[in-house]
Amino acid sequence: xxxxxxxxxxxxxxxxxxxxxxxxxxxxxxxxxxxxxxxxxxxxxxxxxxxxxxxxxxxxxxxxxxxxxxxxxxxxxxxxxxxxxxxxxxxxxxxxxxxxxxxxxxxxxxxxxxxxxxxxxxxxxxxxxxxxxxxxxxxxxxxxxxxxxxxxxxxxxxxxxxxxxxxxxxxxxxxxxxxxxxxxxxxxxxxxxxxxxxxxxxxxxxxxxxxxxxxxxxxxxxxxxxxxxxxxxxxxxxxxxxxxxxxxxxxxxxxxxxxxxxxxxxxxxxxxxxxx
Length: 276
Prior knowledge:
CATH architecture of the largest domain: 3-Layer(aba) Sandwich
Number of domains: 2
InterPro entries: PfkB_Carbo_kinase (IPR050306), PfkB_dom (IPR011611), Ribokinase-like (IPR029056)
Family: Belongs to the carbohydrate kinase PfkB family.
Order of helices and strands: HHEEEHEHEEEHEHEHHH
GO molecular function: ATP binding; fructokinase activity
Protein name: Carbohydrate kinase PfkB domain-containing protein
Oligomer: single chain
CATH topology of the largest domain: UDP-N-acetylmuramoyl-L-alanine:D-glutamate ligase
Keywords: Kinase, Transferase
């Protein structure tokens, strides 16, 4: 595991000639469109123990919550006042409908979501053990997200994006791998900024070597922006988001709104948190 993470770290690169000023430069006027972030990948149902700090086997019960790394990002962006869309696949089942409705309720464009009548929506049981390590158990044999095809991609939606955000889970199996690569190629040709979350989940890969090769296969396609001028501001904002997120159970239910974050951020002329 350590060697695999070190491989990613050694391969990390920063693209300094890509400016983020167009994406974060001040307030948008009423007539200007917000940058659209297209999130491509998995969306599933997380089952979180009702009691913290225990193993999955010892959990007395579970609370269901929408999740999936890319869906989390899409909802997080929308709740913070941004514009986001999600592209992926869920089962034609109750959980799939729940997830589609969740996106709509959070103002995330779900027009790129597809449904599979033969495979179920993916499930993940997740706990944070007493030693601080996360424990996962996935049900994907296969799950609907793994069966997204290139023909099901919403090309027009991808072309509208300013940022194309993606992970690595969709690289594990066909036909989703081919769909992922096609979407990535389309986004790049459309001029989207490519944002990559490796999101290593070794349990889902055939082996550590397969994970390394799969994740690294598209590593050099990504654009990574570094805006040192706004680093302190970004860290303060991210810290506030994190502080609020750990007060709730479940990935998506715990994501804060922009208003909630602003309430605990330091005021403009103070180093202490503003009154909530």
